[in-house]
Specification:
The structure holds two protein chains of two kinds.
Chain A lengths: L1 E8 L1 E15 L1 H9 L8 H7 L5 H14 L10 H9 L1 E17 L3 E9 L12 E2 L9 E3 L7 E7 L1 E2 L2 E7 L4 E9 L4 E11 L9 E3 L11 H10 L7 E3 L4 E4 L6 H6 L1 E11 L3 E15 L2 H18 L6 H12 L10 E2 L2 H11 L1 H12 L7 H4 L2 E2 L11 E2 L2 E4 L7 H9 L6 E6 L5 H17 L5 E5 L6 H8 L4 E2 H5 L7 E6 L5 E6 L7 E2 L10 E2 L3 E6 L6 H10 L2
Parallel strand pairs in A: 14-16, 21-22, 22-23
Antiparallel strand pairs in A: 1-10, 1-16, 2-3, 2-7, 2-9, 3-4, 5-9, 6-7, 8-9, 10-11, 11-12, 13-14, 15-16, 17-18, 19-20, 20-28, 21-24, 24-25, 25-28, 26-27
Chain B lengths: L8 E8 L4 E8 L13 E3 L12 E5 L6 H11 L3 E7 L17 E6 L6 E3 L4 E6 L2 E5 L1 H17 L3 E4 L8 E2 L16 E5 L12 E3 L12 E3 L7 H9 L3 E4 L6 E5 L2 E6 L4 E6 L2 H12 L4 E8 L9 E3 L13 E4 L28 E8 L9 E2 L1 H37 L4 H22 L7 H87 L2 H40 L43 E5 L2 E5 L6 H10 L3 E3 L5
Helix pairs in contact in B: 5-6, 5-7, 6-7, 7-8
Chain lengths: 558, 659
């Protein structure tokens, strides 16, 4: 979540008679301060070592001056000014006179002199206009001008008239706005001033110049701020979940972008920041949102699914649709509410009325599937539900890994070998690339080797990003590109071919790649449970396979 | 002997063929051509199927726009079933959107070729095997048919559309969601490439072929498309005992042998193979055994085929035809070289008649030899024309000369009466010559033949010479008359001059004497002044000198005057005493126009034209073409004379030029 706040500051222009100190470059004092660094203090000996030839009395005199300038205290310890002077050779040089000051007050910056200008004798105000000064900036604090950012000054002492400081209030059209950006996710914030001040030489206020303020940050606990807002200003938009730092909202009224990203942008006229006052022009961006109820979550999930189906109306078998629904809901704010993918029949009934393209994209792959689609696959599919399928992984001619099951690669390899004694195997998969897939390939190869006497696994893969050397290292066989073996007639599905002694063999047509299985542990082995997407492998006869695959059987048995 | 103008001649010949035989042919006799009875497996293709339940899948192969399966599928869609249809790429073609596109329950995909028209529902599967005939599939066949459908639907679709939209739009077929495995080789319904081996016929088998070549082994019964091809092979099979028929109702090839019955539906790239069950095979056999209209027969008597409405399809013929009572065969035109051969000219070869013709009539046209369009007059004709032209010119020149002599003699007669006698003689001679000229003009040489022509030409030369003599005489008479008149004129002029001189002489003499006296007086005065100058004083001398000068000038002028008068007197005296002298007038030298310069010797006058050695033909026109002499006649009546004249003139006798 990010927030952008702003508030207008009131600028006061005062003319005061005071003792001021302007920072000037004084290298000799910088030398003194640097000499004091080892002990973090100035002493007679330090001065004498830095300024050879100076007598002790002279050194004491120098120390007194440094104390007067504020570079050290009465004990000679370096002050913050002294430490800065050791860095940049700049020290505040006092003077006395009449000064024109621009002053702003806000909890974020206190009472701050924004700019100061020496007043000449001709421009000095009349004594009749002097009024008692109240709530003036603190003396001794270093201010940096936002009109001339190179200028720094210190208000050392205000002259008093009748026991209290006096001032002359001047006219000004200067204006300033404080803009504050808060990033709750990163835990950072920055604020700065923007606006215009009177030109220094202008007696009238018509001449203005832009301010130049380097951004500053504020020490504030942003989680406290978020909770305060969630329970306060954001109450009208939803229910604040302080634990997840998320706003539970109603699905109705959300934009497409908000439902897809689970983020919302809110504009408010004003908002209160604890301890920092009230701000206007409030924009809260990327506010994390989620459903407020199971019904809302179901509607939300359905909307996302339909939008995806409509945007990309490609044919989707039921297992692909289930995977898509899982992708759209799992690890999102919807998952805790366990939204359900409607049954195939119910979903088609809804889509037939609204979106024929999506209707046919789901109906045809089921109606015209070359293999029987289990009725359980067509039933309601619920994400996040703690219901594990209990049926076995293998059926006659099929190996199925339903959503939620986490079999190991060795377990699957044994099912795919199907009790035979293969002499060679071939994996046809477009996407044998990427470190995660290759890591799973290693698991598959080791599992096949442990489940059979196969020494090497042939791999035919898509041409894009074809890591031949890496695959060969894993499989002990030279991989081949799809273009080389299939030319332009690439298969859609993945296949695992098992060659048996004597020229026999069979193939598995797989709905998904076994390489998409992901380990749940950091150092997986063949026996480690894996997270699978819906996976269905169907056993085929050799003559039902692609001609190139049929040729492979002949080649490996020569 | 033919008469009249020489024109092309049309001739004919009729040959009777009722005893001819045909080696082999398809014969069609009018009778029903469709199976009269269907059974449990062969059913009417449009017989209804029990509608599928809601959401059931119905698969449709729609091979054409009027697919019965497509029509049937609409009933199922209306009942709530989901209908999946594959159609060929050309579907639906032009015209209004088909009704199937109105249904929301229909998904259509286009594939390059739909091999069969059929439907697959949960309860029944059926394919169309012939005109109006469908074959029901058993459950095993139906499952295999579904697999074939899935393979075509998912792997071969190019674009797709679904019904229900106001304006259905086709989109590129979306990617298939999975691979459909190939149908196993032992499947009862499968796709076969056209190049893959098919079941072969064996002796005793039953074969129905829609395309290709007849089997090499004679089956018991063969159905083969009637047509113009493969008659030799079919004849061999028929002679080997095969009963060969043709029937159009079955749209598939069929081979039924001891291994079973196989149907092969047509296709350009692949074919759908269906292995039938024994029950299906039995019904197919029964349907094929039904009588077919076409039969292939060998050694066929032409007279025996003439049953009413029978059609015969011969080898190589474009289509079947009935028996033709009389065939008209027009032959090419003949062009005999001799005019006399026109009546007896016939073609050297007679084209073979239509095997199905009971009689044949040949017709042809004989074109007589004709004068070529670019022929010109023969040189002999030219020579005769030139002679005739020269003859006419000379006759006309003689006439002109005689006319001029007549006019000239008349003029002289009027001008010089003294010549009247001579002119009278000339006129009479001219009249005689004119009469001879007119007689010659009535006898042009080209009509007389070359011998007589030479005589008349000689006579004409004589007349021309006489005319020339007569002209010379007239010119001489004219010249003498003119000289006499000139002498008289000159004498009159001489006499007048003498008389004028005698009249002027006295006056001139008197004037001469006066002039001489004045001259003498002046001479004396001058002498006196000269003397006076010598004695005069200076003042007078000046005046005397002036006077002396004036007298000198006057004396010089008077002396010149005296000399001129003296010469005039002498001249008149000489003229008065001169005799008469006749000066004949100068005869003008006339040169005939075109006369050459004197240094060019005159060419000898052209010899008088001699008549050609050959006479012109008596009939026709003598022409020449490319060096050949042609005698053209226009009527058959001139044929005899024309042949004789052509022989004499060594010319080829031809008819007139083509109009």
């Amino acid at each position: 979540m990010r927030a952008s706040l702003a508030t207008e500051l009131t600028i006061q222009r005062l003319a005061v008679f005071a003792e001021f100190a302007w920072f000037e470059r004084r290298p000799e004092l910088g030398v003194l301060c640097r000499a004091a660094r080892p002990n973090n203090a100035l002493s007679v000996s330090t001065v004498q070592s830095a300024l050879p030839g100076v007598t002790e009395a002279g050194a004491r005199n120098v120390l007194a001056w440094c104390e007067m300038l504020g570079l050290c205290d009465s004990q000679g310890s370096l002050t913050r000014l002294g430490a800065e002077a050791a860095e940049d050779d700049e020290v505040p040089v006092p003077e006395q006179g009449t000064y024109d000051l621009w002053i702003a007050r806000h909890p974020m910056l206190g009472c701050r002199i924004l700019a100061a200008v020496r007043m000449t004798a001709s421009r000095e105000p009349s004594l009749d206009a002097v009024r008692p000064a109240v709530d003036l900036p603190p003396c001794g604090e270093v201010f940096r001008s936002i009109a001339e950012p190179r200028e720094r000054f210190v208000l050392r002492k205000l002259a008093k008239a009748g026991g209290s400081p006096g001032c002359v209030v001047g006219n000004t059209e200067a204006w300033c706005r404080l803009r504050w950006d808060l990033d709750f996710d990163r835990g950072t914030n920055r604020w700065h001033l923007e606006g215009e001040l009177d030109a220094p030489s202008a007696s009238r206020t018509s001449a203005l110049r832009p301010v130049q303020h380097a951004p500053e940050s504020d020490e504030i606990d942003l989680r406290v701020v978020a909770d305060a807002w969630g329970l306060g200003a954001l109450r009208d938009f939803g229910r604040w979940d302080a634990q997840r730092q998320r706003l539970a909202v109603r699905f109705e009224g959300l934009s497409e972008d908000e439902t897809e990203k689970f983020l919302k942008t809110i504009h408010l006229a004003s908002i209160e920041v604890p301890g920092r006052g009230s701000f206007g022009e409030v924009v809260i961006e990327d506010l994390s949102i989620g459903p407020s109820s199971d019904v809302e979550a179901q509607d939300w999930a359905s909307a996302r699914l339909r939008r995806r189906l409509s945007r990309d109306a490609k044919y989707r078998p039921r297992h692909v649709l289930r995977a898509l629904f899982a992708e759209l809901t799992e690890e999102t704010p919807l998952e805790p509410f366990a939204p359900a993918l409607p049954s195939h029949t119910d979903l088609l009934t809804d889509l037939e009325r609204a979106d024929l393209a999506s209707y046919w994209s789901l109906a045809a792959p089921v109606d015209l599937s070359p293999h029987v689609v289990p009725a359980s696959d067509l039933d309601v599919f619920r994400v996040g539900a703690d219901v594990r399928p209990s049926r076995p992984l293998d059926e006659p001619g099929h190996v199925r890994i339903p959503h939620g099951r986490s079999p190991s690669m060795r377990e699957i390899a044994q099912l795919l070998v199907a009790g035979s004694e293969p002499i060679r195997a071939l994996l046809c998969d477009r996407y044998v690339r990427g470190p995660e897939n290759l890591a799973t390939l290693e698991l598959l190869v080791s599992s096949l080797r442990s489940a059979s006497a196969i020494s090497a696994l042939d791999v035919w893969a898509g041409d894009k990003e074809f890591p031949a050397a890496e695959i060969e290292r894993i499989t002990s066989a030279r991989p081949r590109r799809y273009t080389e073996v299939f030319q332009r007639d690439w298969p859609h599905d993945r296949y695992l071919l098992i060659a048996l002694p004597g020229g026999g063999g069979f193939g598995w047509q797989m709905s998904n790649s076994p390489l998409h299985a992901r380990p749940t542990t950091s150092l997986p082995t063949g026996d480690s449970p894996l997270r699978w997407k819906d996976f269905v492998a169907t056993k085929l006869q050799r003559e039902q396979l692609h001609p190139a695959m049929q040729r492979w059987f002949i080649e490996v048995t020569r | 002997m033919r008469a009249g103008p020489i024109l092309p001649l049309v001739r004919d010949r009729v040959v009777e063929r009722s005893g001819a035989r045909i080696p082999a042919a398809w014969v069609r006799r009018e009778m029903p051509d469709a199976p009269t009875k269907l059974g449990a497996w062969l059913v009417p293709v449009d017989s209804p199927i029990t509608p599928s339940p809601r959401d059931a899948a119905v698969l449709v192969f729609a091979a054409s726009g009027d697919s019965p399966a497509m029509r049937e599928s609409l009933r199922h869609a209306a009942a709530g079933a989901r209908v999946y249809v594959v159609v060929p790429s050309s579907w639906p073609g032009a015209g209004p959107a088909p009704a199937v596109l109105q249904s929301k329950r229909v998904l259509i995909r286009r594939i390059p070729e739909v091999l069969v028209d059929g439907i697959h529902t949960a309860g029944e599967a059926r394919i169309r095997v012939g005109d109006g005939v469908g074959l029901r599939l058993d459950p095993v066949q139906a499952r295999a048919m579904r697999s074939v459908f899935l393979r075509l639907f998912w792997h071969e679709a190019t674009d797709e559309a679904w019904g229900g939209a106001v304006t259905p739009s086709w989109r590129t077929a979306a990617e298939r969601p999975f691979d459909v495995p190939d149908v196993p080789a032992d499947s009862p319904v499968q796709l076969r490439g056209v190049g893959q081996p098919l079941p072969t016929a064996a002796r005793g088998s039953l074969v129905h072929l829609r395309h290709g070549e007849p089997p090499s082994i004679a089956p018991a019964r063969l159905w083969f498309p009637a047509g113009p091809d493969h008659h030799d092979r079919l004849s061999q099979l028929a002679k080997a005992g095969a009963v060969i028929r043709s029937s159009d109702w079955l749209a598939a090839d069929l081979i039924s042998n001891s291994e079973g019955t196989t149907l092969l539906l047509p296709g350009s790239s692949r074919r759908l193979l269906v292995r039938t069950t024994s029950a299906q095979s039995t019904e197919l056999r029964q349907a094929l055994e039904a009588r077919a209209a076409w039969s292939f027969e060998v050694d066929l008597a032409l007279s025996g085929v003439g049953s009413r409405g029978a059609k015969v399809w011969l080898a190589g013929a474009a289509d079947a035809r009935g028996i033709e009572p009389r065939q008209q065969i027009p032959l090419t035109e003949l062009d005999p070289t001799e005019l006399r051969d026109v009546e007896r000219c016939e073609p050297e070869q007679w084209p073979a008649p239509d095997p199905l013709a009971l009689a044949v009539q040949y017709t042809w046209t004989v074109r007589p030899p004709r004068l070529p369009p670019a022929s010109t007059d023969d040189p002999l004709v030219e020579r005769w024309k030139n002679l005739e032209s020269e003859w006419s010119r000379r006759i006309e020149a003689a006439r002109t000369s005689l006319g001029e002599l007549d006019a000239e003699s008349g003029r002289l007669e009027r001008a010089l009466s003294v010549l009247a006698g001579s002119i009278l003689g000339i006129k009479s001679e001219r009249q005689r010559l004119l009469e001879r000229t007119e007689k010659l003009a009535e006898r042009p040489p080209s009509r007389l033949g070359s011998a007589v022509a030479a005589e008349v030409l000689g006579e004409l030369a004589k007349v021309e010479a006489a005319i020339a003599t007569l002209r010379s005489d007239l010119e001489k008479t004219d010249r003498e008359g003119r000289e006499r008149a000139e002498r008289d004129r000159q004498h009159l002029a001489w006499q007048a001059a003498v008389d004028e001189a005698a009249r002027q002489i006295p006056d001139l003499v008197h004037a001469l004497e006066e002039a001489k006296a004045d001259a003498e007086r002046l001479r004396r005065e001058l002498e006196a002044v000269v003397i006076e100058i010598k004695s005069a004083d200076k003042a007078d001398q000046r005046d005397l000198h002036v006077r002396q000068s004036r007298l000198v000038e006057d004396e010089r002028k008077k002396t010149a005057h005296v000399d001129r008068l003296s010469r005039e007197v002498e001249d008149l005296e000489r003229r008065k005493s001169s005799p008469f002298e006749f000066k004949p007038p100068r005869t003008p030298v006339s040169r005939p126009p075109g006369d050459r310069p004197r240094f060019v010797p005159a060419a000898s006058p052209p010899a008088p034209a001699a008549p050609p050695s050959e006479d012109l033909p008596r009939v026709g026109a003598l022409r020449s073409h490319r060096g050949q002499r042609l005698l053209s006649i226009t009527r058959w009546e001139d044929l005899e004379i024309g042949e004789a004249e052509a022989s004499r003139l060594k010319a080829r006798l031809v008819g007139p030029e083509r109009p």
